[in-house]
Amino acid sequence: MLRKGDCEDSSFLLAALLLTSGISEHCVRVVLGKVVSSDGSYGHAWVVYQSEDGRWCLLESTLDSVPSRLVPADSLSQPGNQYQYQPQFCLNASHLWSVVPMKMQMADYVKMRSIKPERKAEGAFRGTIL
After folding, report:
1. Backbone phi and psi for residue 84, each to the nearest 5 degrees, phi listed first
2. Cα 47 from chain centroid?
3. Which residues contact 43 (CB under 8 A, 6 or more apart)?
């Protein structure tokens, strides 16, 4: 077992597990974008899930432990947070959406991903929000 991968690998794995468990593809999306913090910004991928009450929640697949509650995704995209998630592209098994006006192309996201976040001693990426 390799036990290696990055945020994209773990996000697609998490999304696949959610879909396999029976959750509709309309309620699960992988998001490609960047995270901005006081340490700078870096390309990142994460999963959003539409809960039973209709709220989109962020599922961060790179955490070392499971959070005690689902975090609303909208609140993490607002300025003023310690870690601001900025979605660029959003996809599910059927569709790919550009979340922002098409200034950014997929190739730009791939270039941005070459900037790797620093890792904390316990292994969680520096962008841990919970």
Report:
1. -105, 115
2. 5
3. 32, 33, 34, 109, 112, 113, 114, 115
CB 90 within 8 A of CB 97: yes
Amino acid code (one letter) for 57 = C
Residue 24 Cα distances to 9, 17, 18, angstroms: 20, 11, 8
Q: What H or E segment, with its residue span, contains residue 56?
A: strand 56-59
Round the CA-based radius of gyration of the chain to a whole number and report it. 14
Q: Which pTM does this prediction carry?
A: 0.75
Strand order, beta sheet including 96-98: 71-72, 56-59, 40-50, 28-37, 84-91, 96-98
> What tens digit of pLDDT does each residue of 31-83 get?
999 999 888 999 999 999 999 999 999 999 988 888 898 889 988 888 888 88
Buried b (16+ CB within 10 A) or exposed e, 103-119: ebeeeebeebbeeebee
Residue 65 identity = S
